[in-house]
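We were asked to recover a plausible sequence for a given structure. The inputs and outputs are reproduced exactly as logged, with field labels preserved.

PROBLEM: sequence recovery
POSITIONS: 161
GIVEN STRUCTURE:
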């Protein structure tokens, strides 16, 4: 099963500031939208299916580091991968690169908490989902160093995990 997922997007005019740079908050939007696309396109997982079953994931935290600006009309690559998982949480790394995958522009670590939408309470992942997670989890990412250390690694390397 593929672990590092990737797709390409074009930076749109309404998402930019007067200097033509992608607005800071829009980086998160682009990356979360890409992650949703990745789940659907690579794993055939639709969030609608989970929501209909009363299950979902809520963002617990975002940690984002901006390395280089993304600019209006630029074609960028967005990559995402699962770097940590527990009984009721997922930690996803999302990176935004130039089109050639040589320049990392931003890194985002988002922690999601699994929630029963009917009760509004945190809930453990079921056994089938936990087994799936094992097949897509990227190992070897220094979680203790956090996204700040990861930023140093990715800003000096190509798109390799």
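RECOVERED SEQUENCE:
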């Amino acid at each position: 099963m593929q672990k590092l997922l990737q797709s390409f997007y074009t930076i749109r005019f309404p998402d930019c500031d007067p200097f033509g740079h992608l607005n800071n908050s829009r980086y998160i939007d682009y990356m979360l939208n890409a992650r949703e696309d990745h789940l659907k396109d690579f794993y055939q997982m639709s969030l609608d299916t989970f929501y209909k079953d009363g299950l979902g994931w809520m963002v617990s935290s975002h940690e984002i580091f901006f390395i280089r600006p993304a600019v209006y009309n630029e074609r960028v690559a967005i990559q995402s991968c699962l770097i940590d998982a527990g009984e009721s949480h997922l930690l996803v790394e999302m990176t935004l690169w130039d089109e050639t995958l040589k320049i990392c522009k931003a890194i985002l670590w988002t922690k999601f908490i699994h929630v029963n939408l009917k009760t509004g309470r945190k809930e453990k992942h079921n056994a089938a989902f936990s087994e799936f997670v094992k097949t897509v989890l990227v190992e070897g990412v220094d979680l203790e160093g956090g996204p700040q250390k990861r930023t140093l690694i990715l800003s000096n390397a190509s798109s390799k995990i």
